[in-house]
Amino acid sequence: MRRNSGMMLLVLITALLAGCNIPRGPSPEQQQTLQAATSEALTQIALTSAASPGGGPPAIITSTPFPLSPTPTQFAAATTAPLSDAVVATDNLRLRQGPSTAFPVILSMPNGTPLTVTGKNGNYPQDSQQLWLRVTTGGGGQGWTAGWLLTISVNLANVPVVATPVPPTPRPTSTFTPAPSTEPFIQFWADSVQILPGQCTTLHWNVENIQAVFLDGQPTVGQGEMEVCPAQTFTSILTVQLRDGSTTYASVTVYVLTEPQVSFRADRYQIAPGQCTYVRWDVEGAQAVFFQGQGVVGHSNALVCPGVDTTYHLQVTHFDGSRTYDYYQTIYVNTGYYGQP
Questions:
Q1: Closest among 271, 268, 323 to 301, alpha carbons compared
Q2: How many helical (H) and strand (E) elements, i.e. helices and strands, does the chain have?
Q3: CATH number of this structure's domain 86-158, picked from the four choices 2.60.130.10, 2.30.30.40, 3.50.50.60, 3.40.190.10
Q4: Is domain 261-333 in CATH 2.60.40.2470, yes or no?
Q5: What is the pLDDT of residues 15-45, one digit of tens each?
Q6: Element (H, E) at 124
Q7: Predicted pLDDT of residue 81
Q8: Where are the domains of the chain?
Q9: Rounded CA gap, 165 and 115, in Å?
Q10: Quick one: which of 328, 246, 19 has its CA closest to 339?
Q11: The overall pTM is greater than 0.70
């Protein structure tokens, strides 16, 4: 009976030691207590065996302390972190749903983010701006990013070319189409409002959002033109009836010139020695125009730089050649004011 009790005590101590899951082992005081209990249990077993009625020689049992603390190598763990395939080499690099900027952004990755490369969009050099890589981040993000903005440690030749997603169809931008105007619109003009006897000109009109149009009392359409060859100055009237029943008018006057229309002038009439000024003329209804005896066109100018007071002469011939008209302008050099301002 005592032998069985000793054996049970030994098993209990062994189970107690096996159940202790203390990484650093028991304290020195705990080790001494356990070793003493173990020795006592073994002694009890030896004494019980010696006194057993079997008559055999007593069993000799030696006490060997159990190792109570694990050796340092028992809990050694690998601490070397695996190398990444690539690292982000710029700030806030975008991870996208596909290999171009046309795809939506999934997230932004800070500089130094490690990545695992799982595919590429083609066999492009590492520095090519056509190279996009399919990658995963340590946080579980997966998508595509620009390969030329990464520091790549993996051999790109071993990275497979994978199928790329179709770019999303861009959403059509809505355009504002203004509602058609309901306000009346009236234009009435002539190609030339000054003509010589026997000449012609063309009248034009463009009228919208109205009820009716009349040219010189005759009904007409909203857009049209008509050539006129008046023998004398006349005014053409466009009568427009609006949608509200009211009436408005537009008119064009065509002047038939019986005498030449002449404008002869200078930019400055008084200058200092060495200065210059422009003399200008506009002539209508003339057969010929002469400036300082030289034939010129009806609308032109001349730069003059007189050293002394000088009078300039413009001569105009009537359109039928029957008579001439003379016009003069004087430019004064370093003298008091005498002429037209």
A1: 268
A2: 2, 23
A3: 2.30.30.40
A4: yes
A5: 555 555 544 555 666 666 666 665 665 566 5
A6: none
A7: 45
A8: 2-75, 86-158, 185-256, 261-333
A9: 20
A10: 328
A11: no
